[in-house]
Write a structure and sequence with these properties.
2 copies of one chain form a homodimer. Chain A is an alpha/beta fold. Chain A has 11 helices and 8 strands. An 8-stranded mixed β-sheet of chain A has the order 3-2-1-4-5-6-7-8, with helices on both faces. In chain A, helix 1 links the parallel strand 1 and strand 2. The longest helix of chain A is centred in the middle third of the chain and has 29 residues. The first copy, chain A, is elongated, with a radius of gyration of 21 Å. In chain A, 56% of the residues are buried. Chains A and B meet through helix 7, helix 8, helix 9, helix 10 and helix 11 of A and helix 7, helix 8, helix 9, helix 10 and helix 11 of B.
Chain lengths: 294, 294
Amino acid sequence: VSGSNPAFAKTAIIGVGLLGGSLAMALRQHRLTDRIVGCGRSEENLCIAQSRGIIDAWTQNPAEAVQDADIVVLATPIEAFVPLAASFRSHLKSGSLVTDVGSVKGALVGKIEALMPDGVAFVGGHPIAGGEEAGCAAARADLFAGKRCIITPMPTSDRTACATVIALWRAVGMRTEEMDPFAHDTLYGLVSHFPHLVAYALVNTAVGSDERAIDYAGSGFRDATRIALSPPDLWRGIALANRDAVISAARVFRKELDSIIFAVEKNDASALEVLLHKAQKARNDISGKTVDEE
Amino acid sequence: VSGSNPAFAKTAIIGVGLLGGSLAMALRQHRLTDRIVGCGRSEENLCIAQSRGIIDAWTQNPAEAVQDADIVVLATPIEAFVPLAASFRSHLKSGSLVTDVGSVKGALVGKIEALMPDGVAFVGGHPIAGGEEAGCAAARADLFAGKRCIITPMPTSDRTACATVIALWRAVGMRTEEMDPFAHDTLYGLVSHFPHLVAYALVNTAVGSDERAIDYAGSGFRDATRIALSPPDLWRGIALANRDAVISAARVFRKELDSIIFAVEKNDASALEVLLHKAQKARNDISGKTVDEE
């Protein structure tokens, strides 16, 4: 498959938001599909997507959307993945492929794969792209270009389908990497899911202590809390689906923060500098590297 | 004083880093001083500052630097303020003015003012400008333009000197605001000092859990931890000088984070969404406002 682009006569995008809409645009730009049907809950969003040419047609019925589709992409908030798969499974075309763009894999890929009928393969994927904007109005064809995509097959996953999903993301410009679904969740729990919760908590700390405090927030606070602008319904779902990794990251974080605060309490300048310096060095080490948007 | 710019025959900048160097450049650009003498520990940094025309001359001896100076600006890491003031106090010219650019005021302004000889006034200031870069190589004349500067006189402070300090920062383009030194520290403990410690702790969490994790950090993590690139010696001093506010912010933050993590543990989607939504709304409310760099 490497070197040749996949081609899909009909693509169904379930959830035409920032990721789903951008994938639709990228598939079209790279001529990977003939026809794209969008599906979602917001009629207004679907109308915008159609009027902008992001999708060719839309329906609010998932079972109708997947009919005759060669590939189905789950791009809603992750909470909806399993109920959606259950609702459209009997309408999937034999030989078709289902994938997703969800930020959590371990708890989900097994459940979704188990729901697939004979002749339909599921392979999970997590394109590390996006941002705090929501809705197809923010979609753009180059959202994925140059970014990383983690593909998370299970030992039971169909290898041909896995190769097709890899080829799909490569065709829209991503650097792909295979990873165990649970290893993925531990990793992204640490560097993405838990840090989002910290950002929300930081904002709540400022507004909870003093209403006017946040008006004095400078660029440091704003950068540190930019991800707190992310849609709460999306990140609620991600945090809950990746509970174990989030809770274990929180445990490590509490210890790390406690060490720093303990050094402040004890007025221990040298211990404090060691802790801050360790962080500065590690953060500086990634400064020059390619950045995945998320 | 309002409307007329202050003028200083000789300015002494103690600590010619990002802030001190930028102030020197801004004073010169706005023709507020005839001559600038720099003082610091690093001969290399002082040579760079002189060769770039940021300062006219330099000395490593603070007592020599302040001789005949009309205004002395403390712009070193804050830990050095009190020892420096003690070392140069007897060399200050009668009628001169001492000010500073430190991020912590409550614990410092009283001590510095108490060290001033008769005929010399001290008024503290905190220009909310800067960034994670260090040294005069990063200095620029427009660093302060359009940003906020908090002036923190005490009830005992000389009002004429206070007016001069306000006029100085306005002349280089800042929006000035007077505030009680301790109120300043509580506020900036919440929106700046403690969030820096959180950023350092977040990086240590990622590298402490899994060495390769940080390589997977996307733009969200990077923004959230950009302030962990800030110089550890500077922020160690700030955290220790503003211990009480930092510790009290940490206490509020632990409660806020615990509420979020508790909702995750209990799988309480609605409680979690309420907490995330509150933060998103508050963060969104400041998105359109003028940003102070720091």
